[in-house]
Amino acid sequence: MIGIDWGTSSFRAYRMDDRSGAVLERIETGQGILEVPPGGFAEALAAAIGPWLATEPADAPVLLCGMVGSRQGWQEAPYLACPAGPAEIARALTLLPFAGARRCLLVPGLSTRDATGVPDVMRGEETKLIGLLEEVGEGEALACLPGTHSKWARVGGGRILGFATHMTGEVRATLLEHSILGRLAAPGGGGAGEGGDDAFRRGLRRAREGGGLLHHLFGTRALGLMGDLAPEETEPYLSGLLIGHEIAAAVAAGGGAADPVHLAGADILCRRYAIALEEAGLACRRHEADLAARGLARLARGLA
Amino acid sequence: MIGIDWGTSSFRAYRMDDRSGAVLERIETGQGILEVPPGGFAEALAAAIGPWLATEPADAPVLLCGMVGSRQGWQEAPYLACPAGPAEIARALTLLPFAGARRCLLVPGLSTRDATGVPDVMRGEETKLIGLLEEVGEGEALACLPGTHSKWARVGGGRILGFATHMTGEVRATLLEHSILGRLAAPGGGGAGEGGDDAFRRGLRRAREGGGLLHHLFGTRALGLMGDLAPEETEPYLSGLLIGHEIAAAVAAGGGAADPVHLAGADILCRRYAIALEEAGLACRRHEADLAARGLARLARGLA
Description:
The structure is a homodimer.
Chain A: E1 2-6, E2 11-16, E3 23-29, H1 41-55, E4 62-65, E5 80-81, H2 86-91, E6 94-95, E7 104-106, E8 110-113, E9 119-122, H3 125-136, E10 141-145, E11 150-156, E12 159-166, H4 168-178, H5 180-184, H6 197-207, H7 213-225, H8 234-253, E13 261-264, H9 267-279, E14 284-287, H10 291-301
Parallel strand pairs in A: 1-4, 4-7, 5-8, 10-13, 13-14
Antiparallel strand pairs in A: 1-2, 2-3, 6-7, 8-9, 10-11, 11-12
Helix pairs in contact in A: 3-10, 4-8, 6-8, 6-9, 7-8, 8-9
């Protein structure tokens, strides 16, 4: 089988063994969906994985997940409502017209509504969570996929029960690039670097104090002006504030199921979230970053 | 006397009667401090208020407040620590070299530290608060000056006891201009318009629910994607979220002194804050926007 994780700014393809889910070959490029001209998705996919298609059986499934199923992608796949697991998702796949494979299928994103009816959505992360479910088991647990839009999902009984998205990564980047806080930061300090753990922990501790996030954000500037925070500490302190606020709110909303929190994503982010969870007194268990491949393989097995 | 409120992007000059504080003439231009070349402040001031200087007595005070006293301004005036009232501020004025007047004086900004030692700063708002103090009286009260950086000050006994800044206005503008939320908003919907009160109130109510601000922000997008929030509602809803979070945190931090909250600033903002305070069950009293002139006159009277 072939699995594709096609996001806004990246394209990842996996050639996998159906049964074991083992990745046999992989292709990663920066050709995200924004780089593909309207109507050009079939052509772009054929160009990217042509050699694989030539050797796979004609009925081998090609499964696509991610923003390729959004309004800006190949075709819009409606959101599937939670709770949802592999069985519900398999029933909601969209068949795409693709000359290269008979079964070219689009994975739907998921939607949920909280107790007050406010909706939330994900597209791409549902497949990673399906991959994660195999490692988590049947019990209820809380999973965190940190990123531009961090996803906190309650999982249990082999399904995704509900989730909440936090705009943490985008708020961090937007403030560093376009607000007064960025002018304080050291040049090149915009990346979530390895250093600055002390300042990061200071931000985490500040997030646990009263005053609110909007006040804590301005405090980053006041600390800088008063000489209490060095320019190179701005970015890690700000990240600590934001991630600290995110975790406090997400764990409170997630009920009692937060021990351990299952964490998966980019190394550099997971390292910071692991520190933050530890500071909050929570255990965490890290999972490999390649969960999308595992999730795509799990969904393909459900098709057979 | 002459009073000047010289901010980052605006210049306001008042010719006033020393004793009554009545404004006799006023000049307002967009020549904020960022428009003035380094070393060019004396010249810019002489050009702006030359005719007044020609008729005022040589020892008439010229008092300047605002970002003109910052590192990017005419001269940096160190922050004065709270608590501070007119007497403390009068002792901390900086004499500026200015051929047009013998007593050209710079009002210092204020600093404070909260219970955990984290600093906060203001520059310009201290003068507005001095102007407000005369209307508030001696009792302890909470004052709110909404804006790019909203200031919440505890005042009492004729002094500013302490304060907290919330980055609400700048976060709102930054997210609308540079984040995914702005792409949802209706074109031209970036201003704090008159309409959208219902969406603004929805945002306020959402802010009182659990989940945290970073989750509520993403909810703006999810509501839009699910058709639960119209493009023209994005801006007022987002403002409601941010102002709701600000007020909840500020009132909690301000202790029991929040009834009524004294509100002063631009009409369009004060109107929204008044709605938000009412939704939070708090009384508010609005004050005229020209408090800087009143504060400058009060400080000048202390010099005599």
